[in-house]
Amino acid sequence: GTDRVQLTLLNSENMRTIQDVYERLSPFVRPIHYELQLTPCLKESTIIGKVEIDVDIQGDVTEIKLHSDGLVIKHVCIQTAVENFADVRYTLNNEMISLTPSKPILVGKAAISIEFTGELGNHMKGFYRSTHKGGDGMEKMLAITQFESAYARLAFPCFDEPSFKAMFDVELIVDETLTALSNMNVISETPAGPGLKSVRFETTPVMSTYLLAFAVGNFDFIKTTTKHGTVVRVYTMPGKQVQGEFSLGIATRALEWYTEWFDIPYALPKCDLLAVPDFHSGAMENWGLLIFRKVILLFDPVKTSSTQKENITLVVAHELAHQWFGNLVSMYWWTDLWLKEGFACFMEYLFIEHNYPDYKIWMRFARDQITRGMNLDSLRNSHPIEMQIDHPEELDEIYDAITYAKSNCVNRMLYEYLGEETFQKGLRLYLARHAFGNASTVDLWNALTEASGQDIAHMMSGWTKQMGFPLITVSKVRRDEGSCVLALNQTRFIVDGSNDDARSKWMVPITTVIGPSSRLGEKYILSEEQTTFTVSIKVDEYVKLNANTGGFYRVAYDGPLFDCLVKNFDTLPALDRFGFASDCFALLVAGRYSATQFLSVVATAATTETESAVWSALDDGLDAFAGMLAKTDACLKKRLDAFVVTTLAPMLDRIGWEAAADDDSLRGQLRSQIINRLARAGHQATIEKALVLFSEQTANQNADIRGSLFGIAARHGNDES
Ligand code: BES
Ligand code: ZN
């Protein structure tokens, strides 16, 4: 029944095969319910615990294996309907404990009781301790958990794989002055010896071990209730609770909106968001007890910029989306990690688009997610979204831009292709069907296939099973009165310009936007390597591919099509301008466009561009280009600098140094980018003005350009002020 994985290790002297390095749990022993009692001792850094696990034995077994890592086992007994094994033999090996009762255990129910002790470590995994400064300036201790991906086994013996879902009754025995939190509400607090109390929590729904959580410490909180009756609280270090107001508002709105958008209620009676001084990742979605690094959750109205507010909103929306994507429906195995991470990422943006349209969040999506996903996935040795994982230790590597950003973009591509209604219908079906259970990628495709009436697995599996993404090369075959015939070709886009030996192909949703009216034109699924494709356009119209930059691919145009788009750049919608600009630089790096072509886009954009996200695609390009020339060709670098000065100085005049009354923070970012670029190109007038503003200490009035001013002062300030 167990999967044995053979690992081949190479070392300098010989080659050997090690068996049993990693073993998966037996499918014949299923946990149903855990009764867990833990006494974390913050002062001694120890955990004393006992756990009773009700299991369902689905085949006669001579041994039972479950996870346990770094725990000292004191005593084990197993009780079945017919037998009581009072002192069971056990061995510990490879993060597992294997229990061998004196006789085989027969099919049916059994209860495993284990007494153990463990360490309350300080390595930010398992159940661990951390410190914070109290109001009196003294160091205070707290203890929290981080169980994803495979660290619950550090805190108690358990079946620590995501498909071994069970219910949990938790009891924590803690110092009577401290607050103890877990996934569920407290049902009782009773004295438990000198200075101690026992805190019991309601039974959880069936859930994966990696989502269990505990927190013990000195916390304050604020709270509210959603319109559906869920209690939402933000817990902070003492006295900091007002800084949680902003997050509390976002969390409440997100719980309400997800409940409606997924058409599935939030599964627990409460939802706590806890801010701690430092944390292993930015945030963790433990069911009903989300934990955040405090700089990510708390909001100091004086110090927090609008970008930080946006960050808080994104992170809170992400962890709350997990309450459905991941917690309610979990992946069977880590190969499908993207099923939770990719969707939590996508839902962040969808939530904000619907609830805070002022953020123009798809522009941020383009700048962050598309850029990050494509940058990593255009490397020759990227990896597919669905990746074979044997040992959870290999997981650390796949919490990366492929699992997060590329998955996010692939989800958006499907969303754009199906439209929100069909996409939503498919996701609702998927979540409802697998609620309190597990799912794999195919289950998602099946639900979307049912919702759309199209073969989604056929279309999408190329995007999740192959690494890389396509470059669509477009050239004009013929232009008639009412139409344009285009030749399309797809090849994998590799940034070093090399060829793809695997000759990967994708089912590429080709969409079109027609200028100058920005109406959407024909769509087409490109599945072959090359084809021709006819777009109906009038004489004075032109076509751009990949409308909204909705697809995870790049587009290279032939000379005339390229020139036409550059000429009409300012008429394209902002997301299309972003995509065109971003493709231009990537294609320059890959050797498909010339520097002149890239700079012609910069020059055009400089006369009209108003969006910082679009400009950032060009600015990143200029930065990389200048950096490369600085190392290789000083003379060309000078020419590039001269080009930057002549092109951008008028742009800065147009935008101005001072924020206009109707400027938003994005305009401020654009201003900051241009000041920075001009200064880096050595534009004396810009440098001098920046130094004056810096020395007048007006930087605070110019919050948006503060970063650039500081940078310029640091580089040029010494000799001039
Ligand atoms: N589930 C992750 C946290 C995590 C990361 C656990 C790596 C184990 C290993 C969480 O939902 C997450 O994705 N957090 C992100 C923030 C998010 C807004 C992208 C993080 O911590 O960076
Ligand atoms: Zn996540």
UniProtKB/TrEMBL annotation:
Domain of life of the organism encoding this protein:
Eukaryota
Limits of the Aminopeptidase N-like N-terminal domain: 31-211
Q: Where does Zn(2+) bind?
A: 318, 322, 341
| Keyword Zinc listed | yes
Can you supply a Gene Ontology BP term from the record? Answer: peptide catabolic process
Q: Which UniProt keywords apply?
A: Aminopeptidase, Hydrolase, Metal-binding, Metalloprotease, Protease, Zinc
Q: Which residues form the ERAP1-like C-terminal domain?
A: 542-720
Q: Does the keyword Phosphoprotein apply?
A: no
Single GO molecular function: peptide binding
EC assignment: 3.4.11.-
In this protein, the active site sits at 319 (proton acceptor)
A Pfam entry, by short name: Peptidase_M1_N
Q: Which residues form the Peptidase M1 membrane alanine aminopeptidase domain?
A: 246-463
Record note on cofactor: Binds 1 zinc ion per subunit.
Question: Which CDD domains does this UniProt record tie to the protein?
Answer: M1_APN-Q_like
- Provide one Gene Ontology cellular component: cytoplasm
Q: Which family does it belong to?
A: Belongs to the peptidase M1 family.
Q: This protein is called what?
A: Aminopeptidase
Q: Which organism is it from?
A: Pristionchus entomophagus
Show the taxonomic lineage.
Eukaryota, Metazoa, Ecdysozoa, Nematoda, Chromadorea
